[in-house]
Write a structure and sequence with these properties.
Elements (H helix, E strand, L loop, with lengths): L71 E3 L3 E4 L2 H12 L4 H15 L9 E7 L5 E6 L35 H12 L4 H4 L1 H9 L1 E2 L2 H9 L1 H5 L19 E2 L2 H13 L2 H4 L1 H13 L6 H6 L3 E3 L2 E5 L2 E5 L6 H13 L10 H21 L10 H4 L2 H8 L10 H4 L14 E6 L5 E7 L57 E4 L5 E8 L3 H14 L5 H6 L3 E2 L7 E4 L5 H9 L4 E4 L4 E8 L2 E5 L7 E4 L1
Parallel strand pairs: 15-16
Antiparallel strand pairs: 1-18, 2-10, 2-19, 3-4, 3-11, 4-7, 5-6, 8-9, 9-12, 10-11, 12-13, 13-17, 14-15, 17-18
This protein binds glycine (GLY).
The site of glycine has 8 residues, from loops.
Length: about 600
C-alpha cells in the first residue's frame, strides 16, 4: 500500500438504496437557449486583450453536442438560469434600473415559481458576489438541522438507515432561502424587496404556460409528490400538468406577497410560518416556530484561489464547493504543461485530481461552526504538490490505496439549480440554490404553496454509509441541531488577469456540481474554448467513492476509453453529467449559455 496523505477517518460502508434520477431528459434540442431579447455574437474570438483568442476543440466523432455553435450575446446585461421566464425576471429588473444583485434576487424568487423542482423558498443556497468596485462577498443560506434533530434520527430500531432523510416531513432542514435572498438584497441591492419580487408574484398569481421541460419534471415527480398530498397546482386531482397548460399558484402568490410586504419575517413568522409548522405536524416533521425564528444566514469571505493567472472566487464551507475546486485545480496546476482536451492523459489527470480532492472533502469538510476545517492546508499549493506526487502517470490509484477504509458503491447525479447574472456596470452574482432532490422531500406546504427540501440527506446520516449521491462522509458531517449539512454547491466568479469578471458559473447535480463547474472553467482557461464549446464538451466525474471515472456516453473516443481502462480506471457511463449555467465576458459584452444537456434561458440586452 502506498503511503497516504489522508487521515483514516472514513468507516466501512454498507449497501443502501441509491436513487437513480439521471440528468437524462433533454426537453429541447441541443444548442437551443430558450433565449429572447438577444442577438448573435460578433464573428471570431473574443477580442479583449485580457481574453486570449479561443481555440476550436475536437470532440469525439458522434458526440451529440458538436462544437462551434454560437452563444447568446448581449452587450450590457445577461441572466442565465434553468428557466427562461426567471431569467427574464432578472432583465426586467435591470431594465427598471436595478443592479445585478436586485436582478439575482428577482430571479431567485421567480425560479421558486417557474422551476419548482429546485428553485425554492423552502430550501437554501449560496451566493457569491463581485461588485464592479472590486468588493467581494459570499452569503451562506444553507438549511440547518432543526433543534430537535439527533445524530441517529434516520436509523431504525435495528440501526439500519431508513429513507426518511430523503422523503417526507422529517427530511427537511430549516429553510434559508428567504432569509438569504433578503439579506443579500439589503446589503448590496438598490431596490426594495417589494419591487424585485413583482415578477415572481405576477408569475405565481397570473400563471404561466408550462413548457416541455417543466412538464417532464412534473411527470417524473408524480409518485413522490402525490405520495404526500393528492392535489397540488402541479398535480390537480393527482394528474400531472401537461406542456401547454397554465400553472397558476395562488397560495404561493400569497406567500410571496407576505414576504414582499414584511421581508423575511413574512416567511419565518406569521401565517406562512404557521402553515409550515402545521404541515410538519401532519407528517413526522420536527421544524418548529423556534427553528424558523432563529434562522440566520451567514456572510463569509469567499474562497479566493488562482489557477494560472486567473482568480477564482467561490463558496467556502458550509459548502465544499470552493475548497474542493481549489484543491483539484491546484493539483492540476502542478503540471507545467497539461495535455490536450480529450486525451487519455487529460482524463486520467483530471479524474485523479478530483479523486484526491474528494477524499479530503468527504473526510474533513463540514459546518465550520461545529468542526475545525483545515481550509488553509486544503487550499495550499504546497499540499497540492504533495497530492500531485501521488498520481502515477501510468495507472489509476485505487481509492482504497489512498484511503483504505472506503468501499465502492454506485451513485447517480441529482438536482439543484444555478443562475448567473451580470449587469452593465460589471457587477456579478453567482447563486446556486436547492431543495436537494428534485422536488425536495415531496412535501408541499398546504395553504402556503411551496415545496420543502430534503436537505437532511446531505448530512452523514450514518457516518460511513453513502447518502443519496453515493457520497461516503465522515463523523465531522454527522447530524447536530443547528448545524448546516455539507454541500457541494459551487457558485463561482472567475476574474481575468486584469481583475475583471471573466466567468460567472455554477451547476446543479450533487457532487458533480464541483467537477462540472470546474471543467467548464478549465475548458475556458486551459483549453481556451469559447463558453459554448466549454459547456458542450463531454464531462467526467470522480468523487473517490464509488471508485470510478464516470463519463458521458459518446464523450470519450473508444481508443481513449480502452487506454483509461487499461490503466485501471473503472469507467462508468451516464447519459449526461451536470447542469451548468454560465456567463462569459467577450469583446463588447457577454455570452450566456444555459446547460445544453437540459433546459434553460440566457436572456440579455
Ligand atoms: N444538495 C446538494 C448539495 O448541496 O450538494
Amino acid at each position: 500500500m502506498m503511503s497516504s496523505p489522508f487521515p483514516r477517518s472514513i468507516l466501512q460502508v454498507a449497501p443502501r438504496v441509491v436513487l437513480s434520477l439521471l440528468l437524462a431528459a433533454c426537453s429541447r434540442g441541443p444548442g437551443g437557449t430558450g433565449a429572447s431579447d438577444v442577438r448573435l455574437p460578433p464573428a471570431g474570438p473574443p477580442g479583449d486583450p485580457a481574453i486570449p483568442a479561443r481555440v476550436a476543440p475536437v470532440f469525439p466523432a458522434g458526440w451529440r453536442l458538436p462544437a462551434g455553435q454560437p452563444a447568446t450575446f448581449a452587450p450590457q446585461v445577461m441572466a442565465v438560469s434553468n428557466s427562461p421566464a426567471a431569467s427574464a425576471a432578472a432583465t426586467e429588473i435591470m431594465r427598471a434600473g436595478g443592479n445585478a444583485v436586485d436582478a439575482a434576487v428577482a430571479l431567485g424568487f421567480a425560479l421558486a415559481v417557474t422551476w419548482p423542482e429546485a428553485g425554492n423558498i423552502g430550501g437554501g443556497g449560496y451566493s457569491v458576489v463581485r461588485l464592479a468596485d472590486g468588493r467581494v462577498a459570499a452569503i451562506d443560506y444553507r438549511e440547518i438541522a432543526p433543534l430537535a434533530a439527533t445524530r441517529d434520527m434516520y436509523l431504525d430500531a435495528n440501526g439500519k438507515l431508513t429513507d426518511k432523510s430523503v422523503y417526507g416531513h422529517l427530511a427537511s432542514g430549516v429553510p434559508g432561502a428567504v432569509a438569504g435572498l433578503s439579506a443579500l438584497l439589503e446589503r448590496y441591492g438598490t431596490m426594495p424587496l417589494s419591487r424585485v419580487m413583482q415578477p415572481a408574484i405576477r408569475l405565481a398569481r397570473e400563471g404561466f404556460v408550462v413548457d416541455t421541460a417543466l412538464a417532464g419534471s412534473i411527470a417524473r415527480a408524480r409518485g413522490m409528490v402525490t405520495r404526500f398530498q393528492r392535489s397540488t397546482p402541479y398535480f390537480p386531482n393527482g394528474q400531472p400538468l401537461a406542456a401547454g397548460a397554465r400553472l397558476v399558484q395562488p397560495d404561493l402568490a400569497r406567500t410571496l406577497e407576505a414576504i414582499a410586504q414584511y421581508g423575511a419575517a413574512g416567511f419565518y413568522k406569521g401565517w406562512v410560518a404557521d402553515s409550515l409548522v402545521a404541515e410538519m405536524r401532519r407528517g413526522e416533521g420536527i421544524i418548529t416556530h423556534e427553528d424558523l425564528s432563529r434562522y440566520t444566514p451567514v456572510w463569509r469571505a469567499p474562497i479566493r484561489t488562482n489557477f494560472r493567472e486567473y482568480t477564482l472566487l467561490s463558496m467556502p464551507p458550509s459548502s465544499s464547493g470552493g475548497v474542493t475546486t481549489a484543491e483539484s485545480l491546484n493539483i492540476l496546476e502542478q503540471y507545467p504543461a497539461l495535455p490536450s482536451y480529450g486525451s487519455t492523459r487529460w482524463f486520467h489527470l483530471v479524474g485523479s485530481a478530483y479523486q484526491r480532492a474528494f477524499i479530503d472533502r468527504n473526510a474533513k469538510l463540514a459546518d465550520p461552526a461545529f468542526v475545525p476545517v483545515p481550509l488553509a492546508q486544503l487550499t495550499s499549493k504546497t499540499y497540492a504538490r504533495q497530492l500531485q506526487g501521488t498520481i502515477s502517470e501510468t495507472r489509476a490509484t485505487p481509492t482504497r490505496e489512498l484511503e483504505p477504509r472506503m468501499q465502492a458503491l454506485p451513485r447517480e447525479p441529482e438536482h439543484t439549480t444555478h443562475y448567473s447574472v451580470v449587469d452593465a456596470q460589471g457587477n456579478a452574482v453567482a447563486t446556486t440554490t436547492t431543495l436537494n432532490n428534485s422536488w425536495g422531500s415531496g412535501v408541499w406546504v398546504r395553504g402556503a404553496g411551496f415545496m420543502l427540501n430534503d436537505e437532511m440527506d446531505d448530512f452523514a446520516a450514518q457516518p460511513g454509509t453513502p447518502n443519496m449521491f453515493g457520497l461516503v462522509q465522515g463523523e465531522q458531517n454527522a447530524i447536530q441541531p443547528g448545524k448546516r449539512m455539507l454541500s457541494a454547491m459551487s457558485p463561482t466568479i472567475v476574474l481575468d488577469r486584469d481583475n475583471q469578471v471573466l466567468l460567472v458559473v455554477g451547476a446543479a447535480g450533487g457532487p458533480t456540481i464541483i467537477t462540472g463547474t470546474s471543467q467548464v472553467i478549465l475548458n475556458v482557461i486551459q483549453h481556451r474554448m469559447t463558453l459554448m464549446d466549454a459547456m458542450r464538451a463531454p464531462r467526467i466525474h470522480h468523487q473517490a467513492l464509488p471508485d470510478s471515472l464516470t463519463f458521458e456516453a459518446g464523450g470519450i473516443a473508444p481508443p481513449v476509453l480502452d487506454s483509461l481502462r487499461s490503466m485501471g480506471h473503472a469507467m462508468r457511463q451516464l447519459r449526461a453529467l451536470v447542469n451548468v449555467n454560465a456567463i462569459m465576458r467577450v469583446k463588447g459584452g457577454w455570452e450566456g449559455v444555459p446547460e445544453p444537456r437540459r433546459s434553460g434561458g440566457a436572456v440579455g440586452y
